[in-house]
């Protein structure tokens, strides 16, 4: 199967979102803690997953994957707290219910204090609104603290590097056998930002290409584990060299599950998001390299600049904000690259 584009990171799915996908010529969608999956009993139920699947079927759209169960389902697992075994049991239910309705991809992150930014209103190209991170400014706190997936419960104590690795191993050892049996693949998102310093008291461990390869080793090369290859997060680690290292290490062994396509200018400790084609890597070279190592999964649009006339494309999760000029530009750019490389 050739590399394909999917309309991704959908928070709110409605008629407008479905129409947007069709107008852009896309046939698949990927969801990010979507509004149609409240998961009120600690897991995504069979009934709500079936309803989402049937809704997308009626709209003529394939579900390529889900990403990030609600924070309330997962925070004790990430932090290694009492109660994590109950949350893992509920995670089993989510995996099995996904399999029952034919959804086979579930992305997750290992960020107890979630994504950090220090500025949500930086002027990008032509004055487009983008976000930025500067390690020197973290004393002021996370500018994303009010985002719906950022935790409101502070850490009871700092979480060390060793404990973060141990917590991740505990999670994988528990869930991968269930995922393998169900035929659902789990996909790890790299740290964003990928800094060495703890943020909000929690160490960051998936912050280098070598660390992502170590995660693959933790999973014992299970076919039920892969990387949610967020190009922006890896670009933050070291630009195109870091991106190439991940492709060359995990691509040939089939460990890249799917791709978040975005980029930044600069690398840690300081960077800002940007339009595709003006960041650290060349998008066409990256797609060609993915193809050459045998990647044949899907790619999604990710964070996009808010261009003139767009609402805030980060903090506003409404479909009005989501179906933006900035997102249409990113997807059109990627369609053009795929076409130009003969990969569409």
Automatic annotation (TrEMBL):
EC number: 4.2.1.8
Reactions catalysed according to its record: D-mannonate = 2-dehydro-3-deoxy-D-gluconate + H2O
KW Ligase (keyword) present: no
Metabolic or biological pathway, per its Swiss-Prot or TrEMBL entry: Carbohydrate metabolism; pentose and glucuronate interconversion
The UniProt record lists the keyword Manganese: yes
InterPro entries: Man_deHydtase, Xyl_isomerase-like_sf
UniProtKB keywords: Iron, Lyase, Manganese
Pfam families: UxuA
UniProt cofactor(s): Mn(2+); Fe(2+)
PANTHER family in the cross-refs: MANNONATE DEHYDRATASE
Function: Catalyzes the dehydration of D-mannonate.
Family: Belongs to the mannonate dehydratase family.
Protein name in UniProt: mannonate dehydratase
Organism: Kitasatospora paracochleata
């Amino acid at each position: 199967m050739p590399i394909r584009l999917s309309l991704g990171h959908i928070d709110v799915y409605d008629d407008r979102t479905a129409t947007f996908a069709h107008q852009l010529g896309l046939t698949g969608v990927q969801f990010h803690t979507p509004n149609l999956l409240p998961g009120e009993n600690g897991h995504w139920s069979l009934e709500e997953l079936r309803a989402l699947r049937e809704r997308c079927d009626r709209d003529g759209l394939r579900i390529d994957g889900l990403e990030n169960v609600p924070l309330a389902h997962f925070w004790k697992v990430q932090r290694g707290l009492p109660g994590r075994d109950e949350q893992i049991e509920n995670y089993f239910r989510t995996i099995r219910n996904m399999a029952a309705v034919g959804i086979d991809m579930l992305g997750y992150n290992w960020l107890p204090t979630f994504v950090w930014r220090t500025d949500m209103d930086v002027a990008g190209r032509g004055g487009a609104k983008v976000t930025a991170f500067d390690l020197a400014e973290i004393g002021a706190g996370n500018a994303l603290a009010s985002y719906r997936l950022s935790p409101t419960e502070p850490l009871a104590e700092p979480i060390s590097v060793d404990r973060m690795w141990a917590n991740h191993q505990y999670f994988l050892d528990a869930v991968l056998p269930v995922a393998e049996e169900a035929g659902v693949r789990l996909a790890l998102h790299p740290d964003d930002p990928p800094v060495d310093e703890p943020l909000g008291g929690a160490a960051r461990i998936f912050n280098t290409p070598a660390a992502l390869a170590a995660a693959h080793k933790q999973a014992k090369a299970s076919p039920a584990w892969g990387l949610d290859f967020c190009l922006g997060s890896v670009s933050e680690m070291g630009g195109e060299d870091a991106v190439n290292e991940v492709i060359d290490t995990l691509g040939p062994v089939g460990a890249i599950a799917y791709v978040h396509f975005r980029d930044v200018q600069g690398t840690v400790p300081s960077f800002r998001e940007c339009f595709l084609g003006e960041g650290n890597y060349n998008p066409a070279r990256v797609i060609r390299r993915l193809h050459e190592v045998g990647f044949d999964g899907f790619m999604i649009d990710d964070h996009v600049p808010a261009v003139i006339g767009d609402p805030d494309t980060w903090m506003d999760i409404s479909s009005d904000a989501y179906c933006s000029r900035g997102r249409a530009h990113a997807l059109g750019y990627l369609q053009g690259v795929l076409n130009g490389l003969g990969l569409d």
